[in-house]
Amino acid sequence: MNRSVAVIGVGSRGVGVLERIVSLSRLTDRPAPLRVELIDPRCDGAGVHATDQPDYLLLNTTAGAVSLFPDHHTVGDAVSLAGPSLLEWVTDRGLRLGEDGFTVSHTGRPIRSTDFLPRRVLGEYLGWVLDEVIAAAPPHVTITRHASAAVDLTPAADGDLEVTLADGEVVRVAQAFLTTGYTANADRTPKPGMLPGPYPLPGVLDCVAPGQALAIGGLGLSAMDVMSACTVGRGGRFVPDGDRLRYVPSGREPKLLFSSRTGVPCRARTKVVEFGPKYQPLVFTEAAIDALRAERGGPLDMVKDVLPLVFTEMRIAHRRRLAAMAGTELRLPHEDIPAALDELDRKHGAFDPIAAFDGSTGMPLDDRAAYQDWFADVVAADLAEGRRGLTGSPVKSALDILRDQRDMFRYVCDFGGLTPESLDEFTASVVPAINRAVVGPQFERHEELLALIAAGIAEVPFGPSPVATPQPDGRWRIASTMLATPHTRDVDWVLPAQTPLPAVAASADSLLVSLHRKGLIRRFRPDSALVPGVDVDADQHPVGADGRPERRIRVLGPLCEGATFYNNLVPSPGMWSRPVADAHRCVVAALADLPAAEPLLTAGTTLLTTAPEVTT
Ligand SMILES: Cc1cc2nc3c(=O)[nH]c(=O)nc-3n(C[C@H](O)[C@H](O)[C@H](O)COP(=O)(O)OP(=O)(O)OC[C@H]3O[C@@H](n4cnc5c(N)ncnc54)[C@H](O)[C@@H]3O)c2cc1C
């Protein structure tokens, strides 16, 4: 009888799964032996948040918004391990934030819940949580760490799963969780002069010499990481200069040439990131989506069916904020809300949610100077909004619907909720627009970008969608495609500043390659050039090449992107949290699927009395 579970991939998802296994095992009144095999080359819990990266590489989640300890909002009574949020953890250790705004050590000011901390610190927190969870396991649960990658997984004749590790060990389990996160894809072969991607930083930039020209493809979070590595990472400093920042160079910076497909800058996070109570939607609701589904008789079209609801909700959020700022409350009729909003627009001036969402209004395409000036003006105007915070910015409040109502988007999209064509369109243009609007860089990064543009170290000269062509001398030529007066530059290096989603059919990860080859996993949308992730059913079981779910395996995290929406996040406390909910329901089901065993204790006896509580 094999009562055993493998957790393959021990980043935040794997740690979350283990926490659920341990907590539910502590809470059970029918304890039975359980073996848990943790498999990961590092097995330190950090996953993508490596502990050896420099402090200037920051999280895009604030310190108070991260906790690996589930609470009742998501798991109800199934809370067993109490533990600190990231904020409480750093505070308990006397850690503080340095004057540079990113270095975490024992000097500086106290860390606030609204601070963006180094990813390194999250990695250390995750490692600590992993140790605590393992230490809290009840006696009937045995946990083994295998510091090795899984390279193969084979269903054995007796119904077990055989997991082969890179070090040659073979582990037999009854159930497996696949939480492998951002596995690399096989197509990232470096070309001369083209850096393979933005990570790991700063190592990936070692070949870029001071003064060389580096074309950065992207304006998002990874591009800002590269910018930090090329500036503060090379000894430069940003100093206050009136209400702006000024850059003091070290002389070791390359020249940074930014561009992107749309040419639209991201919106930065507000200066102080505080969200307030969850937004209560009036029109972008489950009932409205259910009604649309009933009307369409099947999957929806995100752009045609759903975005109109989202835009109306943004208009409501905008008016609600204006009303709150005036000390009143927005009252809308139950019938024909859009007409009531039109009336408010006529009286008080219009708010265009589509323009706010799209962000390209007024983009001049005359020449490089006109475009770059527009770009810098848009960034500066957004920073001005960001200084007011959500409570002082109706525009930011309207856009925040896109973050706050993420679970509604999941309700729309998950498990085939969109037509294949619409999922492609959603992936290609709606998700990037959402990310630009509400998952943009920290406020300070955009202040720094403006300072670098002013210092002539950074430029955004090409307009949308420039093309990069390799030159015989190993350099690259970047040419605008949309400017009336074309602009062309030869650069020493190009760097695509995106982290591609893990691809089922083009993975560099031996395990995923093998699972795909054996038909144990397949792509969710095999015909799509945009959705590379795994097909999972609503219970997170991978669907195989034969169309049948493999019930001994459950997949969680970024590999599921496409079949489910927005998997690339760490759990947050004090609210219903999807990563926790997924881990909980999957662990409950996996434990129930294990072969029965004689209980170790009489039914009704709880192990809670014998297991130590994790304290902070
Ligand atoms: C650069 C970057 C920054 C990010 N910053 C944030 C942030 O600030 N806030 C946020 O909420 N999210 C952030 N994310 C999103 C990120 O996806 C989540 O935070 C979270 O780390 C995902 O957890 P995970 O466990 O699914 O994946 P990961 O953290 O990637 O962990 C996966 C683990 O699986 C292991 N693994 C892979 N293949 C195998 C194998 N074959 N056998 C065994 N082990 C394997 C890896 O070694 C790794 O340890 C960021 C992502 C990236 C890429």
UniProtKB/TrEMBL annotation:
Supply the Pfam families for this chain: NAD_binding_9
Q: Where is the FAD-dependent urate hydroxylase HpyO/Asp monooxygenase CreE-like FAD/NAD(P)-binding domain?
A: 6-182
The species is Labedaea rhizosphaerae
Q: InterPro entries from the entry? A: FAD/NAD-bd_sf, HpyO/CreE_NAD-binding, L-asp_N-monooxygenase_NS-form
Regions that span the bilayer: none
Protein name (record): FAD-NAD(P)-binding protein
